[in-house]
């Protein structure tokens, strides 16, 4: 295991702990947040707010580093254009998120909480990603 | 702590969880120079493109997620979760997979890492998936579809 893999493992563990502590591994909690016109549960706004707040500060620190601690360069997305693919994809993702109350992170983290249900979700998610990749390879 | 008007809300646990997620994204960025976007990293681990990080790192991150949840389970003595039926989870998973692949990210990549650096693509993507998420739950409620067991 190289240093970057250890960094990734640590990031994953802290990420998974945050998801579980914040209630995101419970689809009922997430759907409670998405139920804006019903019995709304604002908890997820606190999760998002806390995470974004930390990262706003980190993005101010990042340019002062010549390079990441264990890599030669930063790999940060540079695209700024808004296209139909981005918006259509995000719209579709929101529909799937709303149906079951799961997005990719909590789906994977919940493998230890609700193994069968989470595995079905994750495998279907990977199949969906594979489907897009397949159609793009053979247009 | 409770929130007036929202008896079920857990604002402090939510905030603490959010700060941990922010720290995790910070570790990934400052340590490995990469965005902690779960959909892209999971795709990478599965060999389906996505994030350009090393495959070993992608796997390490993916394995870390349930390990982190295990730590919290042990600390709290269990975690509540009510899941939909396998059929509903399969349909939702498929849509999430197609959507995140086309939309280049999910709640972590766009919502946490992208919005915090004021990326226009991420702000638009987040606003879009929030809106369709709200609309989906509202529509399901209107149709009387209860999916969680």
UniProtKB/TrEMBL annotation, chain A:
Alphabetized, the UniProt keywords read:
Membrane, Transmembrane, Transmembrane helix
> Per its record, how is this protein called by name?
YeeE/YedE family protein
Pfam families in the record: DUF6691
**Looking at the record's lineage, which domain of life comes first?**
Bacteria
Which residue windows are transmembrane per the record? Answer: 44-61, 82-102, 108-132
From TrEMBL, chain B:
Keyword field contains Transmembrane? yes
What keyword terms does UniProt attach to this protein?
Cell inner membrane, Cell membrane, Membrane, Transmembrane, Transmembrane helix, Transport
Q: What is this protein called?
A: Sulphur transport domain-containing protein
Q: Name one GO cellular component term.
A: plasma membrane
Per the record, membrane topology reads: Multi-pass membrane protein
The protein's matches in PANTHER family, at most eight in alphabetical order, are given as:
INNER MEMBRANE PROTEIN YEDE, SULPHUR TRANSPORT DOMAIN-CONTAINING PROTEIN
Q: Which InterPro entries match?
A: Sulf_transp_TsuA/YedE (IPR007272)
Membrane-spanning residues? 12-37, 58-77, 83-102, 123-143
Localization per Swiss-Prot or TrEMBL: Cell inner membrane
Q: What is its main location?
A: membrane
Q: Which family does it belong to?
A: Belongs to the TsuA/YedE (TC 9.B.102) family.
